[in-house]
Write a structure and sequence with these properties.
The longest helix has 15 residues. The protein is of the alpha+beta class. It contains 17 helices and 23 strands. Helix 1 packs antiparallel against helix 2.
């Protein structure tokens, strides 16, 4: 927890949060701080985000028109002969549950973070990207000591990190996966960050870096082309707005699935008692899960889908939440999937594996046409009260994102919890007829036929909520201990 201050940054790594807080302290606004933290996170959280990743940024407050900047991963060109590119499957264990991820060159989609950084700074920034990228580049060159959370992620992704010589050279330079207390260095990533600052995003989409990426992938069975990269743009979207109690919730609109399903669950709970019961929260989760049908996924890309959906029925990721002294909020979520294992030589860029994530491809792999934004569970969100920012939050955790955010919003709005307690509280997640539960929750009120998987302790399976709250002109924040999150106030 961060002590109350005029501004606050909550993020998934101490150095990420400190980078953003330093920008606020030096007079930058919430967007400057969020971008500074993003660039640092490419170095400090490289298995979760990076220059080969994608994401979303939500901005609101201090008189700004709410806007969602979409720089998520885009589907590449399919193989010309119609054959499906080969994906390599690996099992990832969370201790009490397991998931299958698919990696390799065929899992890489068109990245968006370079475009997102530059578009955000051009639109809202008040400091130079050079000033923001310099400290991040130095971090990459000096190296980052792995903390317990990062070492744990590296351990469970060991098969991925040794799947190619280039990735193993970064993560297992001495023949074993880096452990807690050991240093990860990526000086080529530092060079790429400075290149982004000096030359903008163009080299990453139409220049020499783009050529290096497309050539490397094509030689290894990937389908991403130079034309796919050249055609990429960050997109403006109008946020989802849903009333909840006496607040307005802003979140990620279609074609992202996460924000729409979160809005649906909140709308259902808003009809019921305050605070909602655990069975009511689980029922809302189940209702949202049941709507993620093939028709739902196909419809996400259609104009007017959100309005039709709500009217008719009412991943590995990292997040940064910022509130500045003026009351402006920036909520930004990024993901590299788990990473593809493909590190492009001379760039330091570890490319995403979004095309190989089952959670984002529920209808099957390689089904999305070239140029379509991939569906996502990410839902950067802002809670507004009487026109002012009250709560900024987002989460990691794939399909668990909407559950984590739903419970955090209920804890703050309905139960009046301070944001650190709300983030720290035990969680449940309902999916495919199974309720997953952390210890510390009374489950006796649920039906006898409910299938329950009980975790022995808090686990990153249940997401990683990073949240910031503003009341009475003072800001506090909380980082999720499940993923080593911290908050720093100024």
């Amino acid at each position: 927890m961060a002590a109350a201050g005029k501004g606050v940054v909550a993020a998934g790594h101490p150095l990420t949060a400190e980078a953003g807080a330093r920008v606020l302290l030096e007079g930058g606004n919430a967007i400057d701080a969020a971008v500074g933290a993003m660039l640092a996170s490419f170095v400090t959280e490289p298995l979760l985000t990076g220059l080969g990743a994608g994401g979303y940024m939500l901005v609101a407050g201090a008189g700004r028109r709410p806007l969602l900047l979409d720089f998520f991963v885009q589907a590449p060109t399919r193989a010309a002969d119609g054959a499906e590119a080969e994906l390599h499957g690996i099992d990832v264990s969370f201790g009490d549950a397991a998931q299958v991820f698919h990696i390799g060159a065929a899992s890489c989609g068109v990245y968006g973070t370079p475009a997102g950084v530059c578009e955000a700074m051009q639109r809202w920034g008040t400091v130079s990207i050079e000033d923001l990228a310099g400290p991040a580049a130095q971090l990459a060159r000096d190296g980052v000591v792995l903390n317990a959370g990062q070492a744990y992620v590296a351990e469970i992704l060991a098969d991925l990190l040794t799947s190619t010589p280039e990735c193993a050279a970064l993560w297992a330079p001495e023949g074993h996966i880096l452990r807690e207390g050991e240093t990860l260095r990526n000086p080529e990533l530092g060079d790429a960050l400075l290149r982004l600052a000096h030359d903008g995003s163009d080299p990453f989409y139409r220049g020499d870096i783009a050529a290096a990426v497309s050539d490397w992938l094509r030689a290894r069975g990937g389908s991403l082309t130079s034309e796919d990269l050249a055609g990429y743009r960050a997109i403006d979207r109008i946020p989802v707005k849903v009333a909840y109690r006496d607040r307005e919730i802003l979140t990620n609109p279609p074609p992202s699935a996460g924000g729409t399903l979160l809005a649906y669950a909140l709308a259902l709970l808003d009809r019921g008692p305050q605070p909602p019961t655990l069975s009511g929260v689980v029922a809302a989760m189940a209702a949202a899960q049941s709507e993620r049908t093939p028709e739902f996924v196909e419809g996400l890309d259609q104009d007017g889908f959100l309005e039709r959906f709500l009217a008719a029925r009412l991943g590995s990721t990292t997040h940064i939440s910022v509130i500045d002294p003026e009351g402006c909020a920036c909520s930004v979520t990024c993901t590299n999937g788990e990473g593809s294992g493909i590190v492009v030589p001379d760039t330091g860029i570890h490319l995403n594996n979004v095309m190989g994530e089952e959670d984002l491809n529920p209808l099957g792999f390689h089904r999305h046409p070239a140029g379509r934004r991939m569906p996502s569970m990410m839902a950067p969100s802002i809670v507004m009260r009487e026109g002012e920012v009250e709560l900024v939050l987002g989460s990691a955790g794939s399909n668990r994102i909407r559950s984590a955010l739903l419970q955090t919003i209920v804890a703050v709005v309905d139960n009046g919890m301070p944001v650190p307690d709300a983030v720290d509280a035990p969680r449940v997640h309902f999916e495919n007829g199974v309720l997953f539960a952390e210890p510390g929750i009374d489950l006796t009120g649920l039906g006898a036929d409910t299938r329950i998987v009980r975790f022995g302790e808090r686990n990153l399976f249940f997401g990683g909520v990073q949240a910031a709250q503003r009341r009475g002109g003072l800001a506090t924040g909380a980082g999720d201990p499940r993923r080593g999150g911290v908050a720093v106030s100024v």
